[in-house]
Amino acid sequence: MSRIAATFERLRAQRRTALIPYITAGDPYADATVDIMLAMAGAGADVIELGVPFSDPMADGPVIQKASERALAKGIGMGQVLAMVRGFRERNDTTPVVLMGYANPVERYGIERFVADAKTAGVDGVLVVDYPPEECEAFASQLQGVGLDPIFLLAPTSTKQRMKDVGRIARGYVYYVSLKGVTGAGHLDTDAVATMLPRIREHVKVPVGVGFGIRDAATAKALSAVADAVVIGSRIVQLLEVEPRENVAAVGGAFIASIREALDSSTEGVRA
């Protein structure tokens, strides 16, 4: 069983919702990423999504786009991202890490090399935004061959066939993009999410996380009644980008602790 699957199994037994924060590797300080990851894990993050900087992150809104630009300006590439995961693993060997990014950095690094090095570094799952499931079964198979979980996006516009395609090869969890548009945009409609998730679960048997538009404890708590996980990214990036180096880990940890407290304050409706 993968580290991700084991984490969700434990949380399900405890009737708790997984908390998955996202940060961009190397932002806002190249040497702070591991410290931020450790602080968030210590504060209650169950899985950490680590963004691989890319010059054209088409699914991301301006907040994460600018985070990628800042990280790229610091020279952060795939090699540096994997080194950050190795640094995290030296002090935390339990919290799953998912690399989230785009096809170009993976393919430039070399797919076989990426799969091998990600496994060695301690990565647990990979979400490549622009790899649709019907076009990357070979890549998903390579990941599964070394024990890494291929993770996919679903959206309000996803067809039944897309859900079936994702359900066939996804492992770990799927990430439901709760809004039409880019990260950090729009207003989250929790009722619409509650309507969509049962449709997804008809075809997808792994846990379903919900992201895009979750900015505070109240929204996270509302979603915990229907989602297996809540994913928060843009808000964390915004909080950290204005902090001095010495504060970023503490600020990130404090924010995650507040979300964790909200999620754990009510188990009513949490899926068994």
Keywords:
alpha/beta, nine-stranded parallel sheet, 12 helices, globular, 272 residues, 9 strands
Describe this structure in words.
The structure is a single chain. The chain is an alpha/beta fold and 272 residues long. It is built from twelve helices and nine strands. The chain has helices spanning 3-13, 33-43, 62-73, 78-89, 103-109, 111-121, 137-145, 160-169, 190-201, 217-223, 234-241, 248-264; strands spanning 18-24, 48-51, 97-101, 125-128, 149-150, 153-154, 174-177, 208-211, 229-232. The protein has a nine-stranded parallel beta sheet. α2 runs parallel beside α12 (248-264), α10 crosses α12 and α11 packs antiparallel against α12 (248-264). The two termini are 19 Å apart.
**Based on DSSP secondary structure assignment, what is the total number of beta strands?**
9
Largest sheet: 9 strands, parallel
Spatial separation of the terminal alpha carbons: 19 Å
Task: Calculate the mean pLDDT score and round it.
Answer: 93
H-E string: HEHEHHEHHEHEEHEHEHEHH
**Structural class assignment:** alpha/beta
What amount of the residues lies in strands? 5-15%
Can you describe this structure in just a few lines?
With about 270 residues, this protein is an alpha/beta fold. Helices cover about 45% and strands about 15% of the residues.
Q: What's the layout of helices and strands?
A:
Blueprint: H1 3-13, E1 18-24, H2 33-43, E2 48-51, H3 62-73, H4 78-89, E3 97-101, H5 103-109, H6 111-121, E4 125-128, H7 137-145, E5 149-150, E6 153-154, H8 160-169, E7 174-177, H9 190-201, E8 208-211, H10 217-223, E9 229-232, H11 234-241, H12 248-264
Parallel strand pairs: 1-2, 1-9, 2-3, 3-4, 4-5, 6-7, 7-8, 8-9
Helix pairs in contact: 2-4, 2-12, 4-6, 10-12, 11-12
